[in-house]
Structures are given as C-alpha cells and as structure tokens.
Design brief:
This protein has 412 residues and is α+β, with helices and mostly antiparallel strands. It folds into 2 domains: 6-177, no CATH class; 267-412, Histidine kinase-like ATPase, C-terminal domain (Heat Shock Protein 90, 2-Layer Sandwich). It has 12 helices and 5 strands. Helix 10 links the parallel strand 1 (288-294) and strand 2 (330-338). Helix 5 (89-105) crosses helix 6. The longest helix has 81 residues, at 139-219.
Length: 412
C-alpha cells in the first residue's frame, strides 16, 4: 500500500483559496498605502519582513480546512513576527480566521484546547503588562489579544456545537424515518400474510371440492354420479364466490360506500356445525364421515374473545380441507374443549394413508397459515401422523392447537 503525495492529501478547498488570495491582495494594498496595524515592537527589522509574514499567513489560510492544526502553528509563528515588525491589519484578520477555523474544522482535542489556551493568553496579556507597566492603558494589550484569539476561538466553539447538534438531529431524523419505513414494511408484510391466510382458508375448501368432484365427473362414466358431482361443484362455486365477495369487502375501507356489515362478519365456533355439514357433502364420494365433539358447554356462560374463535374456526376449516384433499376413507373427528381458566383446545383426527380416486394437489400453505395464526396468539400447534389411532390400528393425521384465553377476556 503506497502513501498518496502530501499535495493530494492537503489540496485546499476553493473557498480557502479565495480567502488566501483576498487576504494577500488586501495586505499588499495596505502595504502600498503605508498603513500598519501597530508600531513595531522590535526596531531594526527590515521593512519587507511584513510581506513575508503576509505571504506565510496567506499560505496558512490554504490549510485552514485540510490541516487546521498545522495552519494554526504556522499562523502563530507568523503573527508573532508580524507584531514585532509592526505588521498589517490584513495579517491579523487572517490570523483570527485561522484560529476560528482550527476550532471549527479541527479534531475534538484541538477544539477543546484552543479556547482554553486563548483564554490563558488573554489573561496573561492583561495581567502581566498592567503589573509591569502599572498603567491602565496596558489593558488594551489584553483586549487586543482577546479580540484576535479568544473571540474567534469561542465563536468557532459556538458554531461547532450548533453544527454537531444539527448533525445529530439529522441523524436522529434519518433513524426515525428508517424505523418508520421498517414498521410500515413489516405492517404491509403482516397484512399481506393475514390476507393470504384468509384467502386460503376461505376459498381453498371450496376449490378443493370443485377439483375433486370435477375430476371424478370426468373419470366416472355414470350420468347420475356426474349430475351429483356437478351439483356439488355448483354449490361450492356459489359459496366460494360469496366468500370472495366477503374477502373483497374486508379489503375495503369500512367508511367506503361499498363496504357492508356482512362483508366484515367474523366467523365463530357457532358455525362449526354448518362447516362440517358442508364437508359431509363434499366428502361423501371419498368415503369420509365427519363428527363434531364440542365440550365447551360448561355452564359458566363465558364467551371467548373474537380472535381466538376466529383462529379456532379457521384451523378446523383448513383441517377439513386437508382431509378432503388427502385423507383415506374413514372418520374425521373434530374435538373442541375448553375449561374456565385454561386454553381452548382444537383437535382434528383424520385417517392417514393412501386413498382411492382423485386427489387435489397441496402446497403446504395451509399448515403454515395455521401455525402463523397460533403463534400470533401465543399458543401451541402440532400437526403430523400418529401411530395407533383411536379408530383402528392404522395411522391418523392429527392437528392439535392450544389457544390461550385470558381470564378477563373470557368474562367479557
């Protein structure tokens, strides 16, 4: 790795070049007019020495941003020689600008030390001349030193603090905007996932029945069976269309003229019997029977919160859809249990194995949706084959979900 040339590292800013040129030309003009800032402190120095300090100070101005500490060191030596020569006001003005730039553009250590050193120099330049000369006019020396050192240094401190505060506020605003954008993105993703679950759960059941019965109608050369299959297809098509309309209503604003109360109705566990009745119609040709065992009637009169009932309803609905797609002939048992203070338990057992006749393809989205619903409510979800089912020696596919019910929500 090779180091870059110093000239490339210290390339002056264009504004600094303008300041240096303006200071140099102004100083030459004052020199030509014979205007000096003060009488020389050291007689005998050549008259052209002020031009040397003027040129050195102009060169230091070129480094005020790129190398502020180096510029301050060079400028301090130049101003010292300039005061000894009875120099030019342009040189003094450029020195104050370099002190200001050292605090504003320099590293934090320089920004802290320069004001302190300037204050000490001002105090010394005030106390020492007054003590030695015992003349009140000696205070003017301290005032002059304070004007060219302490004033610019503290001006740089104030402006630097304002810039740091503005930078911090800008960073905070950018972070706030970034967090807001992340929240918005997560909200969009969550809403899309919710609508994907609703679309799958509301429509997949009907589409699966349509796919199974349409395949059976094509495969079986029996007019009676074909009419029966077409009847099931039509019924599921009508119901699927109604579900789609309700879903479209959910996507609309509640204040929109096209939104209706019916579109926003939320399914509850009271509709399980109708859900199973539809499953019995759809699964009759596949040798499937459906039973419901609901033991929630415990005499407490408690009502479950709407999110819990909706999740339980959708889990049963998706489990029945999966049974229509994949289950072997047999009994599909749905069990709903709940005791006061405990979770709502949903369990669906269906025969697991090969089945004759047509089957609807599956994508696995239903299991993902059920798991997401349970996780959002903080519950537990299990799905998979079980050996030695309750209805025989074969395997069963079991879906089991536990939905927590808080006691205060249960009593509402």
């Amino acid at each position: 790795m090779t180091a870059r040339p110093f000239a490339a590292l210290a390339r002056p800013h264009r504004d600094d070049v303008r300041i240096a040129v303006a200071g140099l030309l102004g100083g030459l003009l004052l020199y030509g007019l014979g205007l000096r800032s003060s009488p020389p402190l050291t007689p005998g120095l050549p008259d052209w020495a002020v031009l040397v300090t003027l040129a050195v100070m102009s060169g230091a101005e070129l480094l005020r941003r790129t190398a502020p500490r180096a510029a301050l060191g060079v400028a301090t030596a130049a101003i010292t020689l300039d005061l000894c020569c009875g120099g030019l006001i342009a040189t003094v003005v450029m020195f104050t600008d370099i002190v200001y730039a050292a605090v504003l553009y320099g590293p934090p250590g320089t920004a802290r030390r320069v004001p302190v050193i300037s204050a000490l120099l001002t105090v010394l330049a005030t106390v020492v001349p007054v003590t030695l000369l015992r003349d009140p006019q000696a205070l003017l020396i301290g005032i002059g030193i304070g004007v060219i050192t302490l004033g610019p240094a503290w001006t740089g401190v104030i402006i630097r603090e304002h810039r740091n505060a503005a930078r911090a506020a800008r960073l905070e605003a950018e972070q706030t905007a970034l967090l807001a954008e992340m929240d918005r993105t997560q909200a969009i993703i969550a809403e899309r996932a919710r609508m994907a679950r609703e679309l799958h759960d509301m429509v997949a059941n009907h589409l699966s029945a349509i796919a199974i019965h349409s395949t059976a109608a094509q495969a079986i050369d029996d007019p009676g069976a074909t009419r029966e299959a077409l009847g099931v297809i039509r019924e599921n098509s009508v119901q699927g269309l109604a579900e789609m309309r309700r879903l479209i209503g959910l996507l609309r604003d509640a204040k929109h003229p096209g939104a209706t109360a019916e579109a926003q109705a939320t399914p509850t566990l009271d509709g399980l019997e109708a859900l199973l009745e539809q499953a019995r119609v759809n699964g009759a040709s596949s040798g499937l029977t459906f039973t419901l065992e609901d033991t929630r009637a415990d005499g407490s009169g408690a009502r479950l919160p709407a999110p819990v009932e909706l999740a339980a309803y959708r889990i049963v609905q998706e489990s029945l859809t999966n049974a229509l797609k994949h289950a072997a002939p047999g009994e599909v048992a749905v069990r709903i249990t709940h005791r006061p203070g405990g979770p709502l338990t949903v369990r669906v057992d269906s025969p697991f194995g090969d089945r004759p006749g047509p089957r609807a393809p599956g994508s696995g989205a239903g299991l993902i949706g059920m798991r997401e619903r349970i996780e959002l409510l903080g519950g537990r979800f299990e799905a998979g084959p079980e050996d030695g089912g309750e209805h025989g020696a074969g395997k069963e596919w079991r879906v089991r979900a536990e939905l927590p019910v808080r006691e205060e929500e249960e009593q509402r």
